[in-house]
Amino acid sequence: MIEFASFYQQIAKGPLAHWLETLPAQIASWQRESQHGLFKQWSNAVEFLPELSPYRLDLLHSVTAQSETPLSQGQLTRIETLLRNLMPWRKGPFSLCGVDIDTEWRSDWKWDRVLPHLSDLSGHTILDVGCGSGYHLWRMIGAGAQLAVGIDPTHLFLCQFEAVRKLLGDDRRAHLLPLGIEQLPALNAFDTVFSMGVLYHRRSPLEHLWQLKDQLVKEGELVLETLVVEGDENTVLVPGDRYAQMRNVYFIPSALALKNWLEKCGFVDVKIADVSVTTPQEQRRTDWMITESLADFLDPNDSSKTVEGYPAPLRAGLVARKP
Description:
This is tRNA U34 carboxymethyltransferase. This protein is of the alpha/beta class and about 325 residues long.
């Protein structure tokens, strides 16, 4: 059974305490009403995993746990079988006491691109919106964060996160809550807020930026990563039914237009930290994610275009401050 009581206790004293006015009721409602048909199967896989106490934990350079003595082949097979019950694994990779999860995304590459542009995360309380399986939460802890809270309504991602947590020694510095950003009150309590790979899925992108701003303390830092297109400050692509086979893609601005949007929402010191092409080496089919991936979504005769004829995925990372 996935429980959240330890998180409630953790935030009961401190800047997030007022979240307890709404959060437990929302989680209770989710537990009663919202569960995916496979959630019981997924949560059972988490429950049957052993709780390991790693001899060595590296969250600074990767998400890696090592045991003091190698696990037996039987233990490794059991752990891998349970983790494969939680496929597809999209965000990672993870190396967990002898089991390597080669995820669809090389999320470590994204982290390496954005990390040099961040303020020091030491002692920070961080929110990661749309955090997926929580890979970046662990990297935030590795970079010195005191508490990293992820929100993502996808039930499979919650189970993947809890599975990784067990194999990392039940580390309670990171938490994932099955919520969307629209369910959060204006907490004004996080030193840093991340929104990576979310904005283009929002019907109202400026509203999303305001919601992110409402979670930050004064002088807090926003880290925003999203799809962009090339162009000037007035360039925005509004795709038709699909973009790279994704249905729910609404607005893809240029990096300069996105900078303007952030400034329009009251952010200051807005910097375009990185712009990079997403390659089939960074997002690809693996043994842990066996369905179609980026290579299948690009024009087979022209990799600079999607199968629909739009510009191929280009991503920008921006950093901004709430005054």
